[in-house]
Amino acid sequence: MALEAIRYREGQLSILDQLLLPSQTIYIPILNTQHGYEVIKSMQVRGAPAIAIVGCLSLAVELKSLTFPSIDALVDFCRTKLEYLVSSRPTAVNIRKAADHLLAFLQSFQLGQPEGTAQAVESVKLKLIEEIEKMLENDVADNVAIGDHGAADILARTGKTRITVLTHCNTGSLATAGYGTALGVVRSLQKQNQLEHVYFNETRPYCQGSRLTAYEIVTDKLPGTLICDSASGWLMQSGKVDCVITGADRVVANGDTANKIGTYMLAVLAYHHNIPFYIAAPVTTCDLTISSGKDIVIEERDPREVTNLQGQELSPKGTVCWNPAFDITPAHLITGGIITERGVFKPSQLKAKLTA
Ligand code: MRU
Questions:
Q1: Closest by alpha carbon to 303, among 315, 292, 294, 290?
Q2: What does this protein do (predicted)?
Q3: CA pair distance 184, 34, nearest whole angstrom
Q4: In whole angstroms, what is the distance from residue 305 CA to residue 282 CA?
Q5: Against a cut of 0.80, is the pTM above it?
């Protein structure tokens, strides 16, 4: 059975607890938005698309048993809950865009009938739940398109028939509704029998690579090798890497991209070694309201995520530590392009292509 980070069946939501992987495979039920907020904040679920989907589905399950006296009351309730969910983690834009979309969807019913009969209010609520449920299907379809566009572009650009990829963090089924973004490109290459190898970074401090990507690579029997983050430069110098592909948490109008800490370092190294560097991300990760990367808020997390590893202290008490969770890769270093479900674009073309 396919690896599922998010299970949603007959109105019930549960998530695979990513803090426990790979040693334990435990699904935890999510009953409401407060619970949704907590699992996002604690990173029991993580990855920009998965954060948005779990947040919105937690609203769907909470709504199920509630009734509202008017459409206005339903809209007010959803607005408060969505703002709360958006405040869980600041860097990934997907949950903000999903919240804005759902509110606009609701407001289209509010126009002209702010009160509504009990039946009309219930029917709007059910339509909203259906709209949220579509996110699961749409995300998988978008990821397959990203994977296929990315694979075609890389094959054309390198002129090779078998590709070795270096990737970072976890961008696969665990970070999305399924298939993945950067790891989706790897899956598409494998599907076409054109994946030579995938190297993946351990991705300190949360170890999305050594715990989560490794889990997906082993489960899917992909030809892959884990390396320390600090081995990336040496690997590139060896001439083994055909392209670097990472995901994104926010791609802004000029193409600057926020992604997991360490991505910028990889982009600089790829530039130095003349290796194409790609970002793979759905359009829901693109934020054209921000003009450049300097305006992206970078989440800083608890230093204990660095000084401790699974309850074990690595550093002496009193060690001062800085733990930014993301960094910004300037557009000029994204030499391969930005792979979306609509095609592969140069960073400088992104805004025009997405608004065309
Ligand atoms: O802190 P995380 O694990 O949520 O960060 C995840 C990443 O940076 C991913 O690369 C990004 O969200 C894309 S996931 C398809």
A1: 315
A2: Catalyzes the interconversion of methylthioribose-1-phosphate (MTR-1-P) into methylthioribulose-1-phosphate (MTRu-1-P).
A3: 31
A4: 28
A5: yes
Testing ligand 1's pocket by substitution, the residue of 169, 210, 261, 285 carrying the most ligand atoms inside 8 A of its CB is 169
CA of 249 to the centre of ligand 1 (A): 6
Question: Which residues are known to be catalytic?
Answer: 249
**250-252 and 257-260: which strand pairing?**
antiparallel
Does 10 have pLDDT greater than 90? no
Would you give the distance in Å from CA 144 to the centre of its chain?
14
Whose alpha carbon is nearest atom 6 of ligand 1? 47
Query: Which domains does the chain carry?
Result: 6-138 (1.20.120.420), 146-355 (3.40.50.10470)
Which ipTM score applies to this complex?
Answer: 0.99
Atom of ligand 1 nearest to the CA of 46: 4
Q: How many CB atoms lie within 10 A of CB 315?
A: 13
> Letter for the amino acid at 177?
A
